[in-house]
């Protein structure tokens, strides 16, 4: 879903990211490290249910993201660099974009991971800079990183938040992610760049019909952007353990979570 969002980004008000194909590839693969844990799925023994993705331990989080980042580096160094920045940014308040960061507590593993990845960036950047001005590489790289955060948050909003109309208070998508039960209401994504080195804007997401969300300002090259992600729906009950949850998941019907982003005033 995030890759689909990245692929249609860019219009008269929002610059097309450069290199577009590599930024889109990175976005489509940015959570590949989660594939194996999601198939289990991970289990919350205290709450007797599948684990929310923000409840994972730091040890497991470092392992899964490390594996996913290595796979992306093997596919494309530039995409791997962006995903490495995304991963380590989760331990550094998204490199300044998310006040307070994501709450996992203090753990030396995250500091070790950040240091090791920053060392890897040096050689990768040296290779990518051949024939380029370093400042051009860095500017576009960090611009694309900031866009990746917006694309990530848009896909998280569309897949886990309540996209039905409601008059609840406006809140950052950041602040909604840790919840399992969601209330309707407008959501915002702050500090989204419109072009390299230019102003940043706050995107406001307002559901106008179930699954139809106005996005203001509007960043896509089509008037309506439908996005979907497959899901499995299991009964809302306590589970005795991981095997019980896996059994329910194995027989659950597949349903698509759908969301349509539309221009303000254009209600599908």
Model description:
It is a single chain. The chain is α/β, with parallel strands linked by helices and 268 residues long. The chain has one domain (2-262). Helix content is 43%, strand content 17%. It contains nine helices and eight strands. Strands 3-4-5-6-8-7 form a six-stranded mixed beta sheet. The protein starts with a helix and ends in a 6-residue tail after the last strand.
Q: Could you list some keywords that capture this structure?
A:
single chain; 268 residues; alpha/beta; two-stranded antiparallel sheet; 8 strands; 43% helix; globular; DUF3891 family protein; DUF3891
The proportion of residues forming helix, as a percent range, comes to 40-55%
The number of strands is: 8
Termini distance? 20 Å
Radius of gyration: 19 Å
Mean pLDDT figure: 92
H/E series:
HHHEEHHHHEHEEEEHE
Shape summary: globular
Query: How many separate domains?
Result: 1
Number of helices: 9
Question: What's the SSE blueprint?
Answer:
Blueprint: H1 2-7, H2 20-29, H3 35-39, E1 43-44, E2 49-50, H4 58-75, H5 77-90, H6 108-128, H7 134-160, E3 171-172, H8 173-176, E4 187-193, E5 200-209, E6 212-216, E7 224-232, H9 242-251, E8 254-262
Parallel strand pairs: 3-4, 6-8
Antiparallel strand pairs: 1-2, 4-5, 5-6, 7-8
């Amino acid at each position: 879903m995030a890759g689909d969002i990245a692929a249609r980004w860019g219009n008269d008000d929002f610059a097309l990211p450069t290199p577009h194909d590599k930024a889109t590839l990175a976005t489509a693969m940015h959570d590949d490290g989660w594939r194996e844990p999601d198939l289990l799925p991970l289990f919350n023994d205290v709450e007797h249910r599948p684990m929310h993705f923000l409840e994972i331990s730091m040890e497991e989080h470092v392992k899964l993201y490390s594996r996913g980042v290595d796979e992306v580096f093997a596919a494309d160094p530039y995409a791997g660099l962006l995903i490495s920045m995304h991963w380590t940014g989760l331990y550094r308040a998204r490199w300044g974009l998310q006040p307070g960061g994501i709450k996992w507590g203090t753990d030396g593993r995250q500091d070790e991971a950040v240091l090791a990845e920053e060392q890897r960036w040096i050689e990768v950047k040296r290779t990518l800079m051949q024939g380029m001005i370093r400042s051009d590489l860095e500017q576009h790289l960090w611009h694309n990183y900031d866009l990746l955060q917006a694309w990530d948050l848009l896909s998280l909003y569309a897949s886990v938040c309540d996209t039905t109309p409601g008059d609840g208070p406006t809140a950052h998508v950041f602040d909604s992610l840790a919840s399992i039960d969601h209330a309707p209401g407008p959501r915002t994504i702050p500090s989204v760049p419109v072009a390299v080195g230019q102003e940043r804007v706050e995107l406001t997401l307002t559901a106008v019909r179930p699954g139809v969300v106005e996005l203001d300002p509007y960043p896509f090259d089509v008037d309506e952007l439908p996005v979907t992600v497959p899901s499995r729906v299991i009964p809302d009950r306590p589970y005795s353990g991981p095997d019980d949850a896996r059994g329910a998941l194995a027989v659950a019907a597949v349903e698509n979570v759908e969301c349509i982003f539309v221009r303000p005033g254009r209600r599908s």
